[in-house]
Amino acid sequence: MAANAELTETAMRWTLSNASLTITIDKSNGTIVSLIDVADGFDACRPDDENAAMIGGLRVADELTGETFCDLSTESIVTVAEAGPGPDGSQQVVLGKQFQGAQFSARVTYRMEADCLVWLAELSKREGDDRSVRIVFIVPQPSHRLWGPMHDPFIDLQPEQPIMIRHGLGHGRAVASQKRAVPVGLLSFIREQRCMALALPVEVPNVLVRFMNNADEGHLNVSNSLAYAQDQREYFKVSYDLLGLREGRPTRAGVLLSAHDGQWRAAMGWYAERYAKYFQPDPGIRDHDGVYHGGRPFAGEEAEIREQMKGRRERGVRWTELHGQLERELAEFFGTPDAVILGAAYFGGPVYFGVMAEKHHTVYCYENSHSNLFMGAKAAGMDIKTFAHGDLDSLRAQLADHQGPPPVIATDGVYSICGEMAPLAELKELAGQFGAELFVDDAHGVFAVGPTGRGAAELCGLAPGDATVMGSMSKALGCNGGFICGTEELVDACRRSPAAAGSAVPPAPIAAACLAALAIVREEPELRDRLEANTKTFRAGMLDRGFDIPAGDHPIVPIMLGEATLATRMASMMLDEGIYVIGFSYPVVPKAAARIRVQISAAHTPEQLDQCMNAFAKVRKACKK
């Protein structure tokens, strides 16, 4: 893979190069003093510009002691250096480094492959208590024009305007400065007809990574602060946050650098080709085998589907009969007078609270409910009060003290992070006692639980009129879109609300798929029986293997691990075993409560469940070494 990489050496420096990139490293401290695009000789360190000349290096923040150690400012000793061939024909420089006063040691690797530079840092604890650290790569900034795969892809970098772009943890109620996020860990610095890509190596687990210019990486929010005065040189930084440093368990971070013709498309293509198995996963994952709770083979023969859709294509946008039919069948299925479909279940909170806010000024919301509930209530101007997990006494006391128009009680039907059912029967009783409306976001319950698949409300014994239920068609049904079921008056107001009017309904082919999937839910109850059996098998098997799993019956099964880095690492290693699971850590879940969430499907075979459980045991054993 890296046969074209070369290594040269002088008394003071190492130089690594391939066909597109050359980097020079200072032997005394391991800093980057030159980063050249071979195509036109441009040096990203800009040595000829006295106001912009840069070097690159490593910065480590010890969050236990509050100390920061940096190649650019802290005295360090290179304890060992190895330069020579690396894996797969690459050439590399590996440095052992000790920062003065640090209770950890660093191992820094610069590895030049045929298509990119791999820059890695590994920290090992030498003494003291376990701690959290932040590893920051200070990267020479080739240009002020930046592209990233996000909603506003082009950014003009200015020293006086701090920029932070997140990759990793999601923040549902983020403030404006936190909203930039990239789903793919890749940015491109654009210079006319060339670009230099800065990317994250997928094989290095991460919890939260932030890309920044002069933003202060000491704060998760940029807070409009500068890390240096405007007359000093500017850098670009990649910050790996929330890393754990434990006895006998090093922590790693890394970045990739590459140069390309053209602009962002070439860089994106290079990254997708490098990690083809992630962009084009195993066919079993690509075809969604086992992804959805109600997993089932193709809903009908292709010719049958074509016949059903025949003629609709000729009428263009006049496919509304499908949407109307879907709303009628959803209302009939859930036993309500009417239903409205939405482009996504996430619009449920904004639509519902936008309607209710006129007569209901306060909402009592379970503190860990999905962010659409908080976003919707906040946008509607409602007074939001919260109650803790399982603390119904607190909610009862708040309701007893409530003054003003009747409030709304809002909750998830199934707590999606832990797979636990909400106490809907008790909440219904409180709503009746205090004259409140009960609103349930049952995205993870509908079609998956309940005797007939009508969700957590049915499972808890609620009648159709006891609560207003919103749900998702992207979970158990494996389709797309959301819906709200309720009275004709409420649903009609929801249809006319600004939030619903401003969001498109699912396309007609998706509506047709939802109708077909809903028919399966009604006509094939054996799928729910199989889902329940698979869930019991998996939960029992994981408990037998010594894993910590909270009690419950839902096909969302949390594997409790505690450490954020452990959850991220295990999830990555599980993918190498051919199993796709997701790690969750703070602030999505409480600190020290990181977990991997597994979603069981009716489509899973006993052999696949055994494979998954055995893979978990294998990966856990490997992580303990």
TrEMBL record:
InterPro entries: Aminotransferase_I/II_large, AON_synthase_class-II, PyrdxlP-dep_Trfase, PyrdxlP-dep_Trfase_major, PyrdxlP-dep_Trfase_small. GO terms for molecular function: pyridoxal phosphate binding; transferase activity. Its cofactor is pyridoxal 5'-phosphate. Residues 315-615 form the Aminotransferase class I/classII large domain. SUPFAM superfamilies: PLP-dependent transferases (SSF53383). Keywords: Transferase. The keyword Transferase applies. The lineage of its organism: unclassified sequences, metagenomes, ecological metagenomes. The keyword Transferase applies. This is Aminotransferase class I/classII large domain-containing protein.
